[in-house]
Structures are given as C-alpha cells and as structure tokens.
Design a protein that fits this description.
Length: 407
C-alpha cells in the first residue's frame, strides 16, 4: 500500500472478541490505522483499554460520546475509514444490519458509512444454521456486504461445527485483498510453486533448494487481485492462503498431471515451480543399501510443463520464471523466445533461494522491466499488475483479430 489505510474495527458481543484483539495487533504491524468501536456487549468480553493499547487510538462505545465535538461520531468515524470490518459479528448484530436498525454507535455508523463493509460472523453452530440467520446472511450479500467465514471448528460452548470466526491471520489476508486493486476480478489463475522430488528409492531422491516463497506470494497477490486461484505445489513448509485451492504434488510427473487437469479452465498460467529436468528411470522400491561400489542412476527427461501449456491451442496467457546463475539477461530472454511466451520473470539463484526478499527482471515484447529488491509479496503484487496489463492488451488484440476475421 502506497498510503496509510484506515480500518474501522467493530467488535460485538461474543467470546471471539479476544481474536479481534490479536487482529488489531496484526493490522497495526501491517501499517494500517485501526479505529475500534465496541458495542456494550463486546465490553463484557474484552475491555476498551485492551484495544486502545493495541491500536494506539481512543476506543468509542457510545453514540453520544462527548469527545466528538459535533456529537456525530457515527458520521465522523465512518468518513475517516477506508473499510469497516465487524469482527466478531454476532447473530443479533447481523440481524440489525439486515433491518437497518441504528440503536447504538456501531450499527448507526454501519448504516451511515460510504465505504465497504466486511462482516466476520461468530456464533454457536445452531445459531449459524438457523434459517433466520441464513436468510440474514443471504440478504447482506445481496446488499453488497462481504461475508468473511465463518469456519468449522471447536466452539466455546464445547460443540463443534460451523460458526467459528476466522482466525486473525486469515482475516488479515482478506483485508489485504480488500485494499488491492481488483485487476483480475473473475479470472482463473493456475500457478505452480515449490520444488519437485524425483525418487531414487523409498527414502532418497533428487530435488532442489526452492522454498516456494515466490510462488506462494504470487498466489496470494493473484487472490488479492480478485482471481480464483489454483496452486499446484511441491513439498514446502508454507501455508497457502485460505481461499486458494491447493493441489499438493511430489514429482514433476504429478505436477504435470495436475496442471493438465486444471489448465482447461485457466485464463492465466504462471509457472513459478522449480521443476526437475530429469527423473530416475525405475527407482528402487526398497532402500538401496550403502556399499563401496559406485551407484549409477539412469535419468530421463521430465515433461516441460511451461512449454506444454504455451503450445495449447486457445490456451491461457502464459508467464514463466527463470532462476539463472550467469549470463542472466541473455539466458532469460532466450528462454522466453524458446517457450514462445509473452512474459518471463527472472532472477539470480544466489539472490533468491530461500530468502524473503529478492529482485525480479521482467522480460516481454516491449523490453526489460527491472523490479528493485523488495519482499517477495511486494514483487508478486508488482508482477500481477504487469500480468494484468499484458493480459488485458492480449484480449483486446485477440478480440480485434476475431472481429476482423468475421468481416
């Protein structure tokens, strides 16, 4: 984000209010200005002093708060916010929103707001499943309110089921997404990430040092841009964003099969994975015992996933990645031309493997576009913006050619 964003966090009565405190801490760490407004019931679970300490801002609870000079807290607070998030949102408060009730500060400012409203429900599973609640949720969605969650899990009442509020980390992802331009809204993006592992025997194999961090950052950035994302990933110690469809694979052959199954519905393909070039022919089904003799392995080429996708008739817009160790620009541009793809992102292996920051250079038909060193999520967002621009141009050209052919 290029400028500080302001989020108004509404906290209603429920045991999940303690999660709102952790969410406040995460938002402040993210550089987001947090203004907390609490209902009377929320104050029974967590005190305003907690949120004031975490946010660094005065917490408001009263519609008639005298600290607001014009006695219009519901107007002043809502106008300063870029987005309003109610978390937790109780069944009672959701019903208030549906019917436009305005009997306290939080419900009144939600009614008076001009910015987007996000709601994170939290309640007992039976309250969530009650037809009245389901009708209310459906009405909020029709009114343009974004519903975040809930999820299934153990609840404070001791029962297990739907109604548990999303974890603060997941809500933070949703808030990040809300602040990003929706450049790929409605598009389907297929991404490969991480390393592949080619078995030698039951315990050994050939792999590489890819951490998957750039691929997972790209998946998050595409999700933030409004895309529906499928992430085909080798084995990594990372957690995929909550709303990404994750397909876990091990070998290059498995990754190829997963891509072939999903690529037909994809608008954009981004091959970030470090796919092994070779696999072992006839790997041993038992552990190979150590001996003083040399071990000879017969290797055969793996399928070239990027080349396959790029060669599909009416296939998706293709983006490749290259990690080079020398002759950086020459090798990267040659790979782009060989694969016949419109965009390739490249970096030096020594600058990126396993690290949280990197540099990228983008190669396309118009030239070379360096992206300075930055956290990988920042680079991923810049990459997605570049992809969105090229994709839009490619669709315009394709439509023009189709129109010309039809004349």
């Amino acid at each position: 984000m290029t400028q500080t964003k302001c989020l108004l966090l509404g906290v209603t009565g429920g045991i999940a209010a303690y999660k709102a405190a952790e969410l406040t801490r995460l938002l402040v760490q993210e550089g987001i200005e947090v203004q907390v407004v609490m209902t009377e019931a929320a104050c029974r679970f967590v005190g305003p002093a907690t949120f004031q300490a975490l946010s660094g801002n005065t917490v408001y609870t009263d519609l008639w708060d005298a600290r607001i000079a014009n006695n219009m807290a519901h107007i002043d607070l809502s106008r300063e916010a870029d987005v309003v998030l109610v978390a937790p949102a109780s069944a009672d408060f959701i019903a208030k929103l549906v019917h436009g009730r305005a009997d306290d500060l939080l419900s009144t400012l939600c009614l008076a707001r001009e910015c987007p409203l996000l709601v994170a429900p939290a309640m007992n599973r039976q309250m969530w499943e009650n037809p009245a609640t389901q009708r209310n949720i459906a009405q909020l969605e029709r009114d343009g309110v974004t519903i975040l969650g809930p999820e299934s899990g153990e609840q404070a009442c001791g029962e297990t089921g739907m109604g548990r509020m999303l974890e603060p980390e997941t809500l933070l992802e949703d808030i990040r997404a809300n602040f990003q331009p929706r450049l790929l809204q409605g598009k389907r993006v297929l991404i490969t990430a991480g390393p592949t592992f080619e078995a030698i025997d039951t315990v050994r194999g050939i792999t590489n040092l890819s951490s998957g961090k750039m691929g997972y950052a790209t998946a998050r950035a595409a999700l933030e841009a409004g895309a529906e994302v499928i992430l085909v990933s080798g084995s990594v110690s990372l957690t995929a964003p909550a709303r990404v469809k994750l397909v876990s694979v091990t070998s290059a052959q498995e990754m190829f099969a997963a891509v072939r199954q999903a690529v037909g519905d994809a608008d954009i393909f981004i091959g970030v994975a470090a796919v092994a070039d070779y696999h072992v022919v006839n790997p041993s089904k038992q552990k190979i015992k150590k001996s003083s003799q040399s071990l000879n392995l017969q290797l055969a080429p793996n399928p070239d996933i990027l080349e396959y996708v790029a060669s599909l008739p009416d296939g998706p817009f293709c983006v490749g990645f290259a990690a080079e160790s020398e002759n950086f620009h020459q090798h990267a541009e040659q790979k782009r031309r060989d694969k016949k793809i419109p965009l390739l992102a490249a970096n030096l292996v020594q600058d990126t493997l396993g690290k949280d920051e990197s540099e990228l250079v983008l190669f396309d038909d118009s030239g070379v576009h360096p992206l300075p060193r930055a956290p990988k999520i920042t680079l991923a967002r810049q990459l997605i913006r570049h992809i969105a621009e090229l994709y839009a141009k490619s669709r315009t050209v394709a439509q023009f050619k189709k129109n010309q052919a039809g004349k």
